[in-house]
Amino acid sequence: MKKHIIPAVKLTLLSILLLAVLYPMLVWGIAQISDGSGKGQTIEDKEKKYYLNVGQSFTQDKYFWSRPSAVDYNASGSGGSNKGPSNKEYLNEVQSRIDTFMLHNPGIKKSEIPVDMITASASGLDPDFSVQAARVQVKRIAKIRNLNEASLEKLINDNVEKPFLGIFGPEKINVLKLNMALDQLSNNSYSIR
């Protein structure tokens, strides 16, 4: 019995040291040298702080709309809907998003709507969307803000984030940064809601 207990206790103590002390210290150390020192990337505007790495809700026609969220952009309850592509309730929800998008963006064909504008991400908190998701909204925003479409296209191009190391992941745009830049372009006061 002693032959088994002593190695088990040693293995337990080693596991505690590695997994409850050294590994958390390593992760904490890496977080301290990252952007935001492990507290997330933030941006301030008019004395209000916004997190760049957490999705925000933009639904006003004068802004680029955000990607839908299954958790209503609640960072404490991250998660997807977990409904499959054959779930009738899910399909109705997606169809409702398509109908709403087309209603607010006349002239856009159903086939032109990027999938990230009608489906939520796995976390429900995706702060980014595709370049195509921004471009499909240009006509609506240009008309409402009385802006030139070419200036909106330039704004989109200026806010594209390239893939990590040029190969990992797609090009993307942070919706919050894009909408803040849009307000600066329009010379309007910044207001998320």
TrEMBL record:
Membrane topology type: Single-pass membrane protein
Keyword Cell inner membrane among record annotations: no
Keyword annotations: ATP-binding, Cell membrane, Ion transport, Membrane, Nucleotide-binding, Potassium, Potassium transport, Transmembrane, Transmembrane helix, Transport
Record localization: Cell membrane
Function: Part of the high-affinity ATP-driven potassium transport (or Kdp) system, which catalyzes the hydrolysis of ATP coupled with the electrogenic transport of potassium into the cytoplasm. This subunit acts as a catalytic chaperone that increases the ATP-binding affinity of the ATP-hydrolyzing subunit KdpB by the formation of a transient KdpB/KdpC/ATP ternary complex.
Subunit structure and binding partners: The system is composed of three essential subunits: KdpA, KdpB and KdpC.
HAMAP family on file: KdpC (MF_00276)
Family recorded in the similarity comment: Belongs to the KdpC family.
Protein name, as recorded: Potassium-transporting ATPase KdpC subunit
